Amino acid sequence: MGAETTVRSEWPMFDFGNFEHVVVYAGPSLHYGAKCWWVTLTGVYQVWGDGVDEPHNGKTYAEETTWKVRLKVGINF
Fold it and tell me: How would residue 27 be classed by pLDDT, with cut points 50, 70 and 90?
């Protein structure tokens, strides 16, 4: 078990003067690893966000969601 934090930010056309939005996600992750394979399940919640022309309530929904759930599977070779 562990924790994961991700930050997603967007500046269209690689112009750092043209900010669109930034979002911070955080939540738990569960990982299992065997000799030849591994799997990780993560559920992260939008803890903070800021976007252009959005309410100043600490959330942004410009192309973003409240929750993200990911399942990653890997094979070692």
Answer: very high
The pair of three-digit structure tokens given for residue 50, joined into one six-digit string: 């800021």
Cβ 64 vs Cβ 30: under 8 Å: no
What ranges do the domains of the chain cover? 2-75
State whether the Cα torsion 59-61-66-71 is positive or negative. negative
E-only strand ranges, the chain? 2-10, 21-33, 37-51, 67-75
Degrees, nearest 5: CA angle 74-75-77: 140
* pLDDT of 29 higher than 90: yes
